[in-house]
């Protein structure tokens, strides 16, 4: 195996992790019939909260908790409009993205931007797993990573199992396929959709936390850089299946990792091409992939009769 291959694959896993969190969180919401395109805004709010709390407490764990809490609160605000008053979910999600971009920018600049201070925070360090890290290639790629990478892998499997094997998962899917029928059967569609939004937003928030406490150890305005929209494309390409979303996210992670390994590989092309590659893939997938397996009631407001 070429010398650059292992670092390339390990980097792909790392860069795919925030996409995995966001995509799996969106799958949970869409399975309940809620289309939340505010993933970008949710990740930004979580990233800012994680950065600020970590900066003032010097505790990445506290920053993680703050980021997830901020994402859940942001999700509840979305739920107030999209579920509570039955506003158009796409319009609401778009407005939430714009609101988050402006809010995080104003808060960041008010505390750090005008003073010239760069926000630098402590982050989670790699945590190689005993014995597993010694497996050739696989050990370095998958088992010498960060704790949040392991969490993304485990949570993906748990969500996949919960959707298929648990009563709550089946009820959730019923709310997204036939909410009127689910309500007749005694299932509270409003409650399930609220639960889905809170859970999905928390996972999406972990993606924002990852950007601060693992990738960058800082906060930058607009640092999500379209990852929320890429996660939406991953959901469609994966046919609303969490494990497939993990695989597709790894492909996007590999595309992103190429820009860092281009020189080692010996590819003499402008680096801007590698920066654009994930977004080009998003457009291609959107053109080539159909809408099979879309939850029947997705993005349709439900009014209890």
Summarize the structure.
This protein has 305 residues and is mainly α.
General description of the model:
This protein is mainly alpha-helical and 305 residues long. The chain has a single domain (5-116, 146-288), classed as ABC transporter involved in vitamin B12 uptake, BtuC (Orthogonal Bundle), CATH 1.10.3470. 71% of the residues lie in helices and 0% in strands. The chain has twelve helices and no strands. Helix 2 (39-57) packs across helix 9 (189-216) and helix 10 (227-237) packs across helix 11. The model has no long low-confidence stretch (mean pLDDT 87).
Key traits:
71% helix; ABC transporter involved in vitamin B12 uptake, BtuC; 305 residues; 0% strand; 12 helices; mainly alpha; globular
The major beta sheet can be summarized as: none
pLDDT < 50 runs, ≥5 residues: none
Q: In CATH, what is the homologous superfamily?
A: ABC transporter involved in vitamin B12 uptake, BtuC
What is the CATH architecture annotation?
Answer: Orthogonal Bundle
What helical percentage do the residues reach? over 70%
Number of domains: 1
* CATH class annotation: Mainly Alpha
The rounded distance between the terminal residues' Cα atoms is: 62 Å
Radius of gyration: 19 Å
Shape: globular
How large a portion of the residues is in β-strands, by DSSP E? under 5%
Number of H/I helices? 12
């Amino acid at each position: 195996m070429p010398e650059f291959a292992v670092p390339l694959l390990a980097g792909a896993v790392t860069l795919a992790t925030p996409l995995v969190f966001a995509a799996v969180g969106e799958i949970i919401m869409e399975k309940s019939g809620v289309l939340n395109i505010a993933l970008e805004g949710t990740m930004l709010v979580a990233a800012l909260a994680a950065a600020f709390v970590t900066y003032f407490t010097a505790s990445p764990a506290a920053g993680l908790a703050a980021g997830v809490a901020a994402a859940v609160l942001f999700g509840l605000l979305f739920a107030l409009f999209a579920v509570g008053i039955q506003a158009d979910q796409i319009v609401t999600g778009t407005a939430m993205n714009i609101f988050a971009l402006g809010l995080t920018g104003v808060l960041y600049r008010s505390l750090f931007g005008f003073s010239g201070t760069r926000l630098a925070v402590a982050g989670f360090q790699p945590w190689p797993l005993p014995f597993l890290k010694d497996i050739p290639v696989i050990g370095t790629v998958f088992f010498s990573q960060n704790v949040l990478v392991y969490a993304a892998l485990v949570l993906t499997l748990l969500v996949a199992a919960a959707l298929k094997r648990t009563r709550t998962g089946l009820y959730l899917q019923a709310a997204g396929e036939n909410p009127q029928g689910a309500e007749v059967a005694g299932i509270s569609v409003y409650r399930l959709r609220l639960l889905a939004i809170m859970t999905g937003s928390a996972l999406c928030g972990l993606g924002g936390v990852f950007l601060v406490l693992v990738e960058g150890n800082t906060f930058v305005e607009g640092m999500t850089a379209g990852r929320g929209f890429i996660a939406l494309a991953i959901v469609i390409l994966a046919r609303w299946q969490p494990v497939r979303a993990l695989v597709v996210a790894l492909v996007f992670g590999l595309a992103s990792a190429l820009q860092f390994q281009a020189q080692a590989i010996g590819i003499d092309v402008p680096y801007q091409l590698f920066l654009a590659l994930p977004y080009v893939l998003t457009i291609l997938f959107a053109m080539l992939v159909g809408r099979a397996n879309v939850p029947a009631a997705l993005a349709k407001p439900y009014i209890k009769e």
